[in-house]
Specification:
Length: 83
């Protein structure tokens, strides 16, 4: 059974809107955290692909990796320098 609480004095905020405000602020903070994490993940993916193309490679979006020298060719190791 709920206890009867006395009415708040005139001009004082009632407890219900305070709970709603707190819940709204919590939901807003949670949504902000999710948006920031998703943005960081997108930015990291963009930076990786941009770095690949800036260094002369080609970004393979299907495999999520950087390829150099064509998609079918396996890069050969460099030849040793003449002595």
């Amino acid at each position: 059974m709920r206890r009867h609480q006395p009415a708040p004095p005139p001009g004082a905020p009632s407890p219900r809107p305070l709970r709603r405000r707190r819940l709204g602020a919590g939901m807003l903070a949670l949504a902000l955290i999710v948006v920031v994490l998703m943005g960081m993940q997108w930015y990291r993916g963009h930076q990786v692909s941009s770095s690949c193309t800036d260094n002369g490679g080609r970004w393979d979006a299907e495999r999520q990796r950087c390829t150099f020298g064509g998609s079918d060719r396996i890069p050969e190791p460099p030849e040793p320098a003449p002595q």
